[in-house]
Specification:
CATH topology: TIM Barrel
Distance between the termini: 9 Å
CATH architecture: Alpha-Beta Barrel
Oligomer: single chain
Pfam families: AP_endonuc_2
CATH superfamily: Divalent-metal-dependent TIM barrel enzymes
CATH class: Alpha Beta
Strand order of the largest sheet: 2-3-4-5-6-7
Shape: globular
Number of domains: 1
Number of helices: 9
Strand content: 5-15%
Order of helices and strands: HEHEHEHEHEHEHEEEHEH
Protein name: Xylose isomerase-like TIM barrel
Length: 316
């Protein structure tokens, strides 16, 4: 009984340590704002909403080292831990080697080192069939094996910079297939960036992805989607579309349970809110709806974490 009580206390501590944030690429900044000012604006605004993590949007970081250090100082002063996307990981070597992709990856990892980012995230799938399990030119296992050399080298590059590398299930493979890729890569600093709803895009139950990838998860995208009737005849009769957290068919409560118990980086794990493929109300301002979506998501996750942490502590 004492051992079980200690386990519950450990889980409660991990739940309380988790950091809530957003995927910055989807958080709208004023249209006249210079690109290099967006990150600082987002950090301030989201910290005021209670966020303690932030994924910097793609392509908005300045090249100037002094400005990068200023962003780091601001985030540190507000208690916000940063996360960064490192595109090009699967082009650093191997059969898909690409010099420009390698340079993009090296640049992002260098920026992550300056910013003190603990984990950079990457992805293979580029939202098309050819970079997915449905590429008919090779079977799934061959496809996964072909990615190992690049991911392994990218992992070594990230390790040299002192950061972890997390691979998102990015509309390409199922969670169990991604687990196979990570096992074959076999590097301690390479794990998963679990997206809780992307399983829908490869016709996989997201709950299965969550169970498969929680033991590898270095970071997350907390996303919910609802299965709805397809209004257009001639298509598959049901489809999934984005919705507010807790309003769809992804069991986010169960996801947090599994992450707290099995993630190798459960302490301080980033729970980053990202919208799915949303159907915004055409009769309302879209930006207003997007701001509401994120604010409600932050409140939802904080309430869920509080409820679970208190429940773990109170369990006899």
């Amino acid at each position: 009984m004492n051992d079980l009580l200690q386990i519950d206390r450990d889980v409660s501590a991990k739940l309380r340590s988790m950091k809530i944030g957003v995927q910055g690429s989807f958080y709208p900044a004023p249209p006249d704002m210079p690109k290099e000012d967006i990150t600082e604006w987002q950090i301030r605004r989201l910290a005021a909403l209670g966020c303690t993590a932030h994924q910097i949007g793609f392509g908005v970081l300045p090249d100037d080292e002094g400005k990068l250090l200023a962003i780091k100082a601001l985030a540190d002063s507000l208690g916000v831990e940063l996360e960064l996307t490192a595109p090009g990981a699967f082009g650093v070597s191997g059969p898909y080697a690409d010099a420009e992709a390698r340079q993009r990856f090296l640049k992002a990892v260098g920026q992550a080192r300056l910013l003190g980012v603990p984990v950079v995230r990457t992805g293979y799938g580029r939202l098309n069939v050819s970079t997915s399990r449905f590429n008919r030119s090779m079977n799934v296992r061959e496809h996964l094996d072909s990615l190992v050399p690049a991911l392994r080298e990218a992992g070594h590059i990230a390790a040299d910079a002192g950061v972890g590398l997390a691979v998102e299930n990015h509309c390409d493979f199922t969670g169990r297939e991604m687990g196979y890729l990570l096992d074959q890569t076999d590097l301690a600093n390479v794990g998963a960036a679990l997206d809780t709803a992307n399983g829908f895009t490869v016709f996989c139950d997201p709950q299965d992805d969550i169970e498969a990838l929680a033991p590898y998860a270095f970071t997350t995208h907390m996303k919910d989607m609802a299965v709805v009737d397809m209004p257009v005849r001639g298509y598959i009769p049901m489809t999934a579309q984005g919705c507010g957290l807790g309003e769809g068919h992804v069991d986010l409560s169960r996801a947090i349970d599994l992450l707290a118990r099995h993630s190798p980086r459960a302490d301080g794990l980033h729970l980053l809110i990202e919208p799915g493929w949303m159907a915004w109300d055409p009769n309302r301002d879209q930006w207003e709806q997007e701001y509401e979506y994120f604010a409600q998501g932050i409140r939802y996750l904080q309430a869920l974490l509080d409820e679970k942490a208190n429940g773990s502590e109170e369990r006899p």
